[in-house]
Write a structure and sequence with these properties.
- Helices cover 73% and strands 0% of the residues.
- The protein is mostly helical.
- It has one domain.
Length: 227
């Protein structure tokens, strides 16, 4: 039992700082994008800050520390204050996942720089580098799933606007706003409760496989930078 708690404690210590940074920059990116689009709501409510305490959600933080999938407090936006509401809302939503991609790339460059400099670092450092790349990619792909309340929902609505009929878009919005949270919770919890194999887990294809694919390429890039 002590070994279990020891492993859990080590996991939290190594994953915790990376997760807190990832979520803080993710939410800050939303707030900054909204401000640039003309909506000062986030700035007025103190969310245009890098202070993690302004962004962390208690339950989302626990999920991120324990299983690597979590979330922060949603950044408030007012579409009526945006210059182009539908487009700008999609851009604000897209900014969060893109911040995670940039962070994954930054961890890659950091690791490559250390290798290139010939600095000898312990396994703990490389564990943090690996977590920095992997966790940010998982957060990016997870948040791009087009279900309310994830960022992918607003991005999908922005892409649909003007490309599909108004009725189809309205039905998509209404369905997501009514059932999106329930579907998301079912997709997260069902595989574990039912002990489904990865092949039957939608997130295996939507989140983990693309994260592993892109993460592998970033690791190769890191090793290339270090030569």
């Amino acid at each position: 039992m002590a070994g279990v708690f020891g492993d859990l404690g080590h996991s939290i210590l190594t994953r915790g700082p990376v997760f807190i940074l990832a979520i803080s920059l993710h939410e800050y990116a939303h707030a900054l994008a909204a401000t640039l689009c003309g909506d000062d709501t986030a700035r007025e409510e103190g969310r245009l800050t890098l202070n993690p305490l302004s962004h962390l959600d208690p339950i989302g933080t626990i999920g991120g520390l324990l299983i690597g999938i979590g979330w922060g407090k949603p950044v408030p936006v007012d579409l009526h204050r945006m210059r182009h509401p539908v487009r700008d809302h999609a851009l604000v939503a897209f900014a969060g996942p893109m911040s995670n991609l940039l962070q994954a790339m930054a961890w890659t460059v950091l690791g490559g720089g250390v290798l290139a400099a010939g600095v000898q670092m312990g396994m703990g450092f490389w564990t943090v580098i690996r977590i920095g790349i992997t966790l940010n990619l998982v957060l990016m792909f997870f948040n791009l799933v087009p279900l309310h309340p994830l960022d992918g929902f607003a991005v999908a609505c922005g892409l649909m606007s003007g490309r599909v009929s108004w009725e189809a878009e309205a039905k998509y919005r209404a369905f997501n706003q009514q059932y999106g949270v329930g579907i998301l919770m079912l997709l997260i919890m069902a595989p574990g409760f039912l002990r489904l194999p990865p092949e039957l887990d939608p997130f295996h294809y939507l989140v983990f496989l693309p994260s592993a694919w892109l993460g592998g390429h970033l690791m190769d890039l890191m090793l290339g930078l270090g030569r």
